[in-house]
Recover the amino acids of this structure.
């Protein structure tokens, strides 16, 4: 009977119910898309750092890795430690080039594992690092710069010649430029410096010892495990918080839509609620009816929103310009979280209408003829 | 659950108003001015009087839909005070029939009638059997699956009677149940009320302007200006 009463009321004002469901749906879709894209971007950036390494060493207390300065000699010293398999300095920079507003530059040494392990579609690892103006392009960067091996391409204020093109699944790397570390230092005016050192240990058991050794030997640096870095890096935290905040605002708007629908629903049925009360419905039963309607609207909205969100992510992924930057892989936890948040928002939106409904005095309501 | 029939038989009047006062808007609109009324089990009592004399208000107080400012309302000997007392009253002891049928138009006749049974948590099968019985007796058996909009005025009021009697209440409160019907249909509805009262031993307290119908009740009580006419009460 509850479901019958709920369905009757929702179908009585179909357009209003659909608008409310759509409000929740688009909020959920927006939240899912924004968070998935940002988490994907954060994941991709983390992967750059954790490529064939477990530890990241960078300057303590910097807000952004682009501002981090780590002397290359520190990497050389760490590479001699017994627990270290290899330590590779990497210098990050961002430049513009022609119509491309952002190109990520990676200043790396010739023996950097991310070059060795990548799939080279043109040129080979041996050709990198022989001269300072020889760069390797990610495959997508090669497409948008319309460059092939041997070409001279503008990168920011300088020109470089392409010695290789490599293919990688990481959006940043695939759309990026790999420069010899020395060239990058000159280009970005960071002589003898890198942004971070990525370190592979011989054994995972050495993580604590490595951290202690860095803390003792290099008090201005900090060493974090890849996962630890993703959690604590302030830029990632800001991005994630922003994503949740934007999504939360969307849901709040959706929740207000539900609240509005439920308020209208209750206001237009004062007499009906009074009739139910005269037929023995308790305040709790009336409250459950209002909450039930809200839950159904929110659940339908959440389900529709998840479908729209998944569709939107796949469409974004298919856009060539965004290829590689959008990681549309959905996390079940995120979907459950967004869905639960939508339900909670719907429930919150039903609180005032519910309180109003349970306070309706049958005797007064029945006087409205 | 309140055993309406047995309690009333043991405890004297099933409906009792003792010096009941009721006003609205903080005293600006006085409605009941010290009403005393006792109705015994099985009685059919007509409450007559001009509009605004307090008939409906008194019915609402007996039904637990409102509370008096002063005085005591007892139903089946139990003082009606607060939600805890009102809810079992509405679920088991009292059935309401209003001038306007007060049915939910988007639901079917059956669904409307099942509302009190659902609210009271009655067994669905038992409730269905009871509804079939009531529908047979009111000539609505063929209309069970019809929505309220499809029913005539008389059918709607008969539906309201079925709904009021679903949970076998010992007391039926009827607030001008024939007021919105033509004379012939009104008489049919009144006949039904009287038949059910006789067949099920239900106590009937009915507010009405129709003196012809009122005289067919076992007792006629007159109200004037928020008070009960002492002579009529003793009738």
């Amino acid at each position: 009977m509850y479901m019958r009463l709920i369905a009757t009321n929702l179908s009585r004002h179909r357009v209003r119910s659909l608008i409310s469901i759509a409000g929740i749906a688009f909020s959920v879709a927006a939240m899912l898309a924004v968070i998935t894209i940002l988490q994907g971007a954060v994941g991709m950036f983390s992967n750059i750092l954790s490529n064939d390494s477990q530890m990241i060493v960078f300057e303590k207390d910097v807000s952004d890795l682009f501002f981090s300065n780590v002397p290359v000699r520190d990497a050389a010293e760490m590479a001699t430690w017994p627990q270290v398999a290899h330590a590779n300095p990497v210098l990050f920079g961002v430049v513009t080039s022609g119509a491309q507003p952002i190109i990520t530059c990676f200043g790396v040494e010739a023996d950097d594992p991310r070059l060795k392990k990548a799939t080279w579609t043109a040129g080979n690892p041996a050709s990198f690092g022989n001269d300072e103006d020889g760069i390797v392009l990610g495959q997508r960067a090669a497409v948008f710069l319309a460059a092939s091996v041997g070409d001279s391409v503008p990168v920011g204020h300088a020109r470089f010649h392409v010695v290789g093109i490599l293919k990688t699944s990481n959006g940043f790397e695939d759309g990026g430029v790999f420069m010899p570390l020395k060239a990058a230092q000159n280009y970005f005016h960071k002589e003898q410096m890198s942004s971070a050192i990525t370190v592979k240990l011989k054994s995972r058991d050495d993580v604590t010892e490595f951290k202690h050794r860095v803390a003792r030997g290099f008090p201005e640096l900090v060493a974090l495990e890849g996962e630890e870095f993703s959690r604590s890096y302030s830029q990632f935290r800001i991005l994630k918080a922003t994503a949740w905040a934007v999504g939360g605002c969307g849901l709040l708007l959706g929740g207000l839509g539900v609240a509005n629908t439920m308020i209208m629903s209750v206001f237009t049925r004062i007499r009906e609620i009074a009739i139910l009360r005269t037929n023995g419905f308790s305040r709790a039963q009336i409250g459950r009816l209002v909450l039930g309607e809200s839950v159904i609207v929110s659940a339908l909205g959440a389900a529709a929103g998840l479908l729209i969100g998944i569709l939107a992510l796949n469409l974004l992924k298919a856009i060539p310009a965004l290829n590689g930057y959008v990681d549309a892989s959905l996390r079940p936890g995120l979907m459950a979280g967004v869905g639960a948040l939508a339900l909670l928002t719907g429930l919150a939106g039903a609180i005032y209408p519910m309180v109003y409904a349970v306070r309706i005095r049958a005797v007064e309501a029945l006087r409205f003829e | 659950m309140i055993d309406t029939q047995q309690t009333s038989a043991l405890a004297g009047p099933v409906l009792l108003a003792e010096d009941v006062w009721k006003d609205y808007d903080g005293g600006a609109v006085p409605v009941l001015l010290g009403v005393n009324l006792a109705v015994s089990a099985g009685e059919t009592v007509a409450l007559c009087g001009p509009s605004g004399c307090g008939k409906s208000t008194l019915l609402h107080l007996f039904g637990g839909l409102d509370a008096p400012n002063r005085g005591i309302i007892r139903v089946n000997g139990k003082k009606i005070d607060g939600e805890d007392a009102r809810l079992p009253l509405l679920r088991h002891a009292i059935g309401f029939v209003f001038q306007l049928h007060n049915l939910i138009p988007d639901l079917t006749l059956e669904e409307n009638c099942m509302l009190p049974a659902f609210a009271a948590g009655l067994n669905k099968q038992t409730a269905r059997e009871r509804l079939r019985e009531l529908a047979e007796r009111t000539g609505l058996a063929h209309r069970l699956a019809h929505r309220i909009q499809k029913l005539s005025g008389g059918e709607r009021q008969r539906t309201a009677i079925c709904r009021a009697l679903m949970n076998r209440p010992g007391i039926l409160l009827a607030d001008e149940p024939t007021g919105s019907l033509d004379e012939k249909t009104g008489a049919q509805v009144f006949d039904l009320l009287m038949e059910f009262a006789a067949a099920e031993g239900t106590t009937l307290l009915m507010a009405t302007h129709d003196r012809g119908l009122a005289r067919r009740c076992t007792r006629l009580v007159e109200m004037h200006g928020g008070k009960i006419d002492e002579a009529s009460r003793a009738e």
In short: Residues 14-50 of chain A form the longest helix (37 residues). DSSP finds 14 helices and twelve strands in chain A.
